[in-house]
Amino acid sequence: MAIATRRKPNSDVALFSLCPFWTSGNNHPEPHAHKSSKTVSSVARSLLPPRRRLRLDPSSYLYFPYEPGTQVRSAVLLKNTRKSHVAFKFQTTAPKSCYMRPPGGILAPGESLIATVFKFVEQPENTEKSSEQKNKVKFKIMSLKVKEEVDYVPELFDEQKDLVTVERILRVVFVDPVRSSPALEKLKRQLAEADAALEARKKPPTEAGPRVVAEGLVIDEWKERREKYLARQQVQAVDSV
């Protein structure tokens, strides 16, 4: 079975130029750049290393079981390492064959979650094309500092695109689903944790108030106990006569 290697393509720039949704900002030069302090500050920020808001595990690759003709899953842990709330968003170069759950959201300070990534693995036509397929698909994770009361909507990243940080660009690596390996075992653990967290979110929250036993019918526990108490008092009164 041919398993993908971690070869880097000759140029990421060529790939990005084919994916317009990865292009951000205004690509046209300012006619009077020397008169615009905003342009100068933007250039200065671009030269500085990005300030990471999220810690990713794995940090560079998404590992998928290599099972051609099926939909497979990968997982990545995202943890907010900042003291502020951070919004995150996924993008991919293959939106027709890949999707993420959740595709975006907001993490409180110190909060973490495991995102699940789904991908359909096409049948390779030949060995060379199979290798190209495994290195072609990429995922980008972006982050944005937000206020605590803000609700997540994807448009946040368009409205504040100058403040968006590209956390990581993750490349796809396929692993043999039969042969045990550290990457495969770690993937299985993360997927199990993600599934458990999803099931926990599906369960209705435990409420201390009235119990709903049917649509439109609510039992008031205090009233129920009072009626039982009065019934016992009546029985005792009858017995004492």
Automatic annotation (TrEMBL):
<dbReference type="GO" id="GO:0061817">
    <property type="term" value="P:endoplasmic reticulum-plasma membrane tethering"/>
</dbReference>
<feature type="domain" description="MSP">
    <location>
        <begin position="53"/>
        <end position="175"/>
    </location>
</feature>
<protein>
    <recommendedName>
        <fullName>MSP domain-containing protein</fullName>
    </recommendedName>
</protein>
<dbReference type="Pfam" id="PF00635">
    <property type="entry name" value="Motile_Sperm"/>
</dbReference>
<dbReference type="GO" id="GO:0005886">
    <property type="term" value="C:plasma membrane"/>
</dbReference>
<dbReference type="GO" id="GO:0005789">
    <property type="term" value="C:endoplasmic reticulum membrane"/>
</dbReference>
<dbReference type="InterPro" id="IPR008962">
    <property type="entry name" value="PapD-like_sf"/>
</dbReference>
<dbReference type="InterPro" id="IPR016763">
    <property type="entry name" value="VAP"/>
</dbReference>
<dbReference type="InterPro" id="IPR000535">
    <property type="entry name" value="MSP_dom"/>
</dbReference>
<comment type="similarity">
    <text>Belongs to the VAMP-associated protein (VAP) (TC 9.B.17) family.</text>
</comment>
<dbReference type="InterPro" id="IPR013783">
    <property type="entry name" value="Ig-like_fold"/>
</dbReference>
<dbReference type="GO" id="GO:0090158">
    <property type="term" value="P:endoplasmic reticulum membrane organization"/>
</dbReference>
